[in-house]
Specification:
- The structure is a single chain.
- This protein is an alpha/beta fold.
- It has 2 domains: 260 residues, Spore Coat Polysaccharide Biosynthesis Protein SpsA, Chain A (Alpha-Beta Complex); 28 residues, no CATH class.
- The protein has 11 helices and 13 strands.
- The strands form 3 sheets. Strands 1, 4, 5, 6, 8, 9, 10, 11 and 12 form a 9-stranded mixed β-sheet that branches.
- A hairpin with a 5-residue loop joins strand 9 and strand 10.
- It is globular, with a radius of gyration of 19 Å.
- InterPro entries: G1P_thy_trans_s, NTP_transferase_dom, Nucleotide-diphossugar_trans.
- Belongs to the glucose-1-phosphate thymidylyltransferase family.
- It catalyses: dTTP + alpha-D-glucose 1-phosphate + H(+) = dTDP-alpha-D-glucose + diphosphate.
- Keywords: Magnesium, Metal-binding, Nucleotidyltransferase, Transferase.
Length: 292
C-alpha cells in the first residue's frame, strides 16, 4: 500500500498565522503538524509516501523531511498548484500509486489512542485482501464542518453529505481514507462541486453506491483532531502537551515509530538524536535506546 499526505491549501481558516507559511509546517506543541499525519501512515506500516503541497512550500518540506531515508521510508513530493479538492490527490498521485492500494490522510489530522496501531493495520490488510474502501467516523459536536454520515432506519449508511447546513447525524468522516486502486478512475470521473472542487465525499458515495464502502467508528477513547481552526489547533497542542507530560511518551514521534518498526537501528536512532540533545526530544530518543 502507498500513502499520500495532502498538505496543500492556503489555510484561510487559520489566518493570519498562515499568511506567510503552510499550516502543516506550523507546530502542534513540539513538532510540525505534518509529523502527526505522517506518523499514522508509518503506524500503518506504509513506507512509500507522497506529500502533495503547493509550489511555494515544497522546498520547505524537502528541507524538513528529505527523502525519508533517515526514517527508513521513501518520501516523494508533488505539487498541487491550486486547491482542486481532496480527490485531486489521486489524480496527481496516479503514477506514484501505480497498481497499488492507497491510504490518504489530510495533513492537519491527528489521531491518538490505545489500540490505534492494530486498528490501522487491520484496515490496510482488509483493503489489500478484499478491495473497496474504508473510512472512519467520529462523533462530533460541529458536524457541519465535515462530511457527515446519514443513516437509514436500520442504522445502515445511506449517504455521506458534505458540510450540510442541517446535519443528519453527529458522525463525521475524518480525514483518513483507505482505498483499492479503483479510486484513481473514480476520482477522474466525478464532477467538481459547487465549490469547484473534486470532493472526497463524492468518491466515498460512489464506493457506497457499489456496496464497496465500509465505515468504521473510531474506538471509544481515541482522540481525533482536525487542526484547521484556531480553537482546534490550540486544543490539539494542549492535548499533546498533556499526554507527553503525564505519560512521558511522545505523540507522533517519527523516529520512535521507525525504530519500533525495525526500519532504523540503535546507531541510526542515536545519530538522529545527537543534534537534538539540547531538547527533551533528543533526550527522549536517546532514552529509547538506553531502555531497550
Amino acid at each position: 500500500m502507498k500513502g499520500i499526505v495532502l498538505a496543500g491549501g492556503s489555510g484561510t481558516r487559520l489566518y493570519p498565522i498562515t499568511y506567510a507559511g503552510n499550516k502543516h509546517l506550523m507546530p502542534l506543541y513540539n513538532k510540525p503538524m505534518i509529523y502527526y499525519s505522517l506518523s499514522i501512515l508509518m503506524l500503518s506500516k506504509i513506507k512509500d509516501i507522497l506529500i502533495i503541497t503547493t509550489p511555494n512550500d515544497i522546498s520547505q518540506y524537502k528541507k524538513l523531511l528529505g527523502n525519508g531515508a533517515h526514517y527508513g521510508i521513501n518520501i516523494q513530493y508533488k505539487e498541487q498548484s491550486e486547491p482542486k479538492g481532496l480527490a485531486d490527490a489521486f489524480i496527481i498521485g496516479e503514477d506514484f500509486i501505480g497498481e497499488d492500494t492507497v491510504c490518504l490522510i489530510l495533513g492537519d489530522n491527528m489521531l491518538y489512542g490505545s489500540g490505534l496501531t492494530g486498528f490501522l493495520i487491520d484496515a490496510k490488510e482488509e483493503i489489500s485482501k478484499n478491495g473497496g474502501s474504508i473510512v472512519f467516523g467520529q462523533y462530533v459536536k460541529d458536524p457541519e464542518r465535515y462530511g457527515v454520515i446519514k443513516f437509514d432506519e436500520q442504522g445502515e449508511i445511506e449517504e455521506i453529505i458534505e458540510k450540510p447546513k442541517n446535519a443528519p447525524s453527529n458522525y463525521a468522516v475524518i480525514g483518513l481514507y483507505y482505498y483499492d486502486n479503483k479510486v484513481i478512475d473514480i476520482a477522474k470521473t466525478i464532477k467538481p462541486s459547487n465549490r469547484g472542487e473534486l470532493e472526497i465525499t463524492d468518491v466515498n458515495n460512489e464506493y457506497l453506491k457499489n456496496k464497496k464502502l465500509s465505515v468504521k467508528l473510531l474506538p471509544r477513547g481515541t482522540a481525533w483532531f482536525d487542526a484547521g481552526t484556531h480553537d482546534s489547533f490550540l486544543e490539539a497542542s494542549n492535548f499533546i502537551s498533556a499526554v507527553e507530560k503525564r505519560m512521558g511518551l511522545m505523540v507522533g514521534c517519527l523516529e520512535e515509530i521507525a525504530y519500533h518498526n525495525g526500519w532504523i537501528t540503535d546507531k541510526e536512532l542515536l545519530n538522529l538524536a545527537e543534534p537534538l540533545m539540547k531538547t527533551e526530544y533528543g533526550k527522549y530518543l536517546e532514552k529509547l535506546v538506553n531502555e531497550k
